[in-house]
């Protein structure tokens, strides 16, 4: 049958397939790294930092009022105005761009830009003169020293603003607001988008204990016993605390060498942070399409695809978008409508049916590996928490738009968790926005 993947392509994709033994070994390594991150004595050299978020209370449904949320996690950021009533959520939001020049400029420029957009938003929504509580989602590795104090560890996702690493980003935002002098905002909490996802899902489903992002980046947070959080510096009367693992960094000490391929190495070498965020680079939407492109180029050069004929488009880094992976895998089995359209856009109209079957297979290998890596990590946390049943809140474009990612994860996690534990995956509705407001609301509820 012509739609069968060619044996040589299958053979060449073997290193993208994770065996059960390899996954079991990775789970042992992830668990070890999580424990290192939580422990006072080993935290400093830990790769998976397991930062304490100081968020100790989940929403209970009594949160009321009007809140702002600021969501900064990529090339755009959002400002949101949220009204919380009894079981009702009214939300208005606006997206603002961050020009490339600001992404690589000074921290002062970045926060002045954010403060200006905040002020404009408040004018547009007639809350310019109100003093509103704000939850600040800041989706970069952060060492939190309290609910409203967080030091940036390192920039990711193409940002390189000077004067921010090692500094308190809440203070930088407050300084920018003060420089303007025209709006009153009380920053109640800073959080990561994973925490926002967990909080957003917990508002609807009180069983939610894990917040996962699989989008441009990949990260997870979970509810840990406060007594296990050795770096916790605060009120230890409350039994639980959300921990932001920053697991995207897993592997930078060699722990992923058992699964790294030539394509992963090439992506890493050409990234702006070589040697860092290796786990994330094998999973997230920022890199998935490029992984497929590198495999296509390599196999075409080896005369296994497209009659050995490459196109200028395919040779250009970043030209195989991650959305192409989702589109190609959305084709019905044996049909290659989307695949042909994508290959046409890439100047590969000469592709045969056999080529299309092979391209789809390569996409499946890359996305399945990503889903299995995420599942291994989630299973580690589920097994660690030992809750009889829990919900994992998930957000991010890869999980949301890839046609099979959810099913691949459910199937794999089932195999990897301890017998008797029940879990489900819940798509988060706007975790980083709604969740930020909820963290602010819960903080206000406490006061």
Question: TL;DR of this structure?
Answer:
This protein has 16 helices and 13 strands. It has 447 residues and is α/β, with parallel strands linked by helices.
Structure commentary:
There is one protein chain. Helices cover 41% and strands 20% of the residues. The protein folds into two domains: 1-51 and 204-429, Hexokinase, domain 1 (3-Layer(aba) Sandwich); 54-191, ATPase, nucleotide binding domain (Nucleotidyltransferase, domain 5), CATH 3.30.420. The protein has 447 residues and is of the alpha/beta class. It has helices spanning 7-12, 20-38, 100-103, 107-124, 169-180, 193-204, 262-269, 278-281, 288-301, 312-315, 322-330, 337-345, 353-385, 397-401, 405-416, 431-446; strands spanning 51-52, 65-72, 76-85, 88-97, 131-138, 142-146, 149-152, 184-191, 208-214, 218-225, 240-244, 389-395, 422-427. The strands form three sheets. Strands 1-11-10-9-12-13 form a six-stranded mixed beta sheet, with helices on both faces. A five-stranded mixed beta sheet has the order 4-3-2-5-8. The protein has a two-stranded antiparallel ribbon with strand order 6-7.
